[in-house]
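Q: Methyltransferase type 11, please. Structure only.
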Amino acid sequence: MTSQRQNEQTWTLYGQRQLDHGFQPPVPQRIDWGFWPGVGPGAELLGDIRGRRVLDIGSGPGHHAVHLARGHGALVCGVDISPTQHRRATRAHRDEPGVRFLCADIAAHLRGSELYEAAYGVRTFGCIDPHHLLPALRDGLTGGSPLVFSALHTDSDGHGPSGSVESRPEVIRLRDEEPIATHMWVLDPGLWEELLAAHHFTVTATHLLQAPEAGSPVVMQVIQARRQAGRG
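A: Structure for Methyltransferase type 11:
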């Protein structure tokens, strides 16, 4: 089974467990790219997105998309490959103005969609094979569009990022539940920059976010990039 296929099953199981528990996160007051409220920058990394078509990569239960529509006037399309995550989003936010949700493979969606003017992924980017995702984003964004995403940098076992473009086993932990096995692309920031440059994106900033509690090894990275002019 490919890492991509396993991750589809992983997030379908994750979404079903959240449905079983009736858990739906509230619409946040700000975008937190890491796991810790108030740590690091917020949606300002995307710039002015009022009235712009924005792609939410791996939108999950939809709360980030709704925040950007309500608080920043964006027109957000949230795309998630997991049917259970999609169900969570549509149950809670089906009638939300400025937001729509699709259950689809992100690359397949981008091949047939109108061009987007911004894209972001909150802790989802590293769950998708970059060789699958980045060519689609290259062709699916207008020139000059911002791309902002967060991805794991160092995991809870203290394992830091990789210098090669390969996925590795990780786990998703839910309180009082068995961990769910998955694969993630936990890449060095310099490697992300090389990959993005190869697909016509220029990295403008990288932020490393650390857990506020002492002793936690977890570090998230947030990468700001911009689609270069032209279609490549």
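A: Brief note, in case it's useful. DSSP finds six helices and nine strands in the chain.
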